[in-house]
Amino acid sequence: MSSLLFQGGTIVAGDRTTKDDILLRDGAIEEIDRFVEEYDAVDDISGKWVFPGLADCHVHFREPGFPEKETMKSGALAARAGGVTLCCDMPNTDPPTVTTEAFADKVRRAQSVTDGALRFFFGVREAAHLEELAHLLADDTKEGRHLRAHLCGVKIYLDHSTGNQRVDPALLDAVFAFCAAHELTLVAHCEDPEINAQSALQNTRMNIAAHSLIRPSYSEMSAIKTVLALAKTHGTHLHIAHLSTEGGVGLIRAAKAEGIAVTCEVATHHLFLSTDDYERLGALIKVNPPIRSPKHRTALWQGIKDGVIDCIVTDHAPHTLAEKNVAEPLQAPGGIPGVETMLPLLLSVAAGKWPHPAEPHVSCPPFTYEDIVRLCVVNPNRIFHLGVSEIEEDKAVDLVIVDPAKQWTIRGAELRTQCGWTPYEGWMVQGKVERVIRRKEDVGRRTKD
């Protein structure tokens, strides 16, 4: 077995950074020390930072059904380029992942993906879907165990979004009880359908900014109250998807203080964009839940600082430019690509450089390189049992080599995502992924002198 020493880099963990060398042997970390002496090859990474491969626990890779938007292969390639080596894919594909057959098909397709690992959420909209999930959990065959190894949780939509997977309200108690009984993390897209419907009826505006009024902030808050009550009743581990409001942060803070088993995530577009960007970006930033005002964005960063928010995700949800550039922008589909740009945006903030080109007056919120690992590795693994790890001895870990001083400009045409565009076009960021070493690849570079 050959060994490779990564020498001179700075290792980033969830609670510290250390300047140590890393000795890899047969794809696993054998030793972490500043004075490693025995190795077959050396790679000098002085001045570089070493992160574990990140986990993005909320993506829509659009396969099966929409290969013009994204595929598992193109999505994983884009993720790897952004330092993300494990992604959790949502169920609103075509067909939706609401049957054992559809789940097995996704797992089969994922076997040909080499740029990253994939896990999948099982969607529930009606009672038959719970029955399908029960069959999957009860299948003790080798195939059944193989499929369950790719299951990261259950997803429900309280209102329609892309794919129209709104759960039957009469089924909610059963879903929460089922997930509690089987110790499954239940992820909820929280928007109140009645509030959204009423707001849509009252809307008289046709410009894209009306989208944030049609799905208002109190819609999210109402839905969060509903699911928190159910989680408390049934003892379910509830995870709130793509939190977007100041009020939502407050509700989750109070629920955690009360001892309710709730965690939550925030998407990068809610951290970096605001309603001020509608004029410039139009339907490109139409997403559900919508982009919010700068006040809500500030509250989300505060929630990260306070530890209320557990994960940062991308909610990577690509559509083609033709779909986004329709004559009536409110008819454009909701969704934003982001799996390749999350890490450079976060690295910029950790370096004290707010990257939004139209907001030179905005000060960077307090945020560290260690926070990236905590929010994109440690906590996702704890919540969804993903099998990822920080950089530790005797672990097979994906390594992400980053140049923290490199400044570069994001260009949609240069990204790997199938859709070929980004709302962060022209943004100058600091910190670039130089290389990603997957845990089982040949990582040899130069022989020892």
Structure description:
This protein is an alpha/beta fold and 449 residues long. It has one domain (53-392, 406-427): TIM Barrel (Alpha-Beta Barrel), CATH 3.20.20.140. Helices cover 33% and strands 21% of the residues. The protein has 15 helices and 17 strands. The protein has helices at residues 72-81, 100-110, 127-138, 142-148, 172-181, 193-202, 211-214, 217-234, 246-258, 268-272, 278-281, 294-306, 321-324, 342-350, 369-384, and strands at 3-7, 10-12, 17-19, 21-25, 28-33, 41-44, 49-52, 54-59, 84-89, 117-123, 151-157, 186-189, 238-240, 262-267, 311-313, 399-409, 428-437. An 8-stranded parallel β-sheet has the order 8-9-10-11-12-13-14-15. α8 runs parallel beside α9 and α9 (246-258) packs parallel to α12 (294-306). The longest helix is centred in the middle third of the chain and has 18 residues, at 217-234. The protein is globular. Mean pLDDT is 95; it is low at 441-449.
Task: Summarize the structure in short.
The chain is of the alpha/beta class. Helix content is 33%, strand content 21%.
What's the arrangement of secondary structure elements?
Elements: E1 3-7, E2 10-12, E3 17-19, E4 21-25, E5 28-33, E6 41-44, E7 49-52, E8 54-59, H1 72-81, E9 84-89, H2 100-110, E10 117-123, H3 127-138, H4 142-148, E11 151-157, H5 172-181, E12 186-189, H6 193-202, H7 211-214, H8 217-234, E13 238-240, H9 246-258, E14 262-267, H10 268-272, H11 278-281, H12 294-306, E15 311-313, H13 321-324, H14 342-350, H15 369-384, E16 399-409, E17 428-437
Parallel strand pairs: 1-6, 2-7, 8-9, 9-10, 10-11, 11-12, 12-13, 13-14, 14-15
Antiparallel strand pairs: 1-4, 2-3, 4-5, 7-16, 16-17
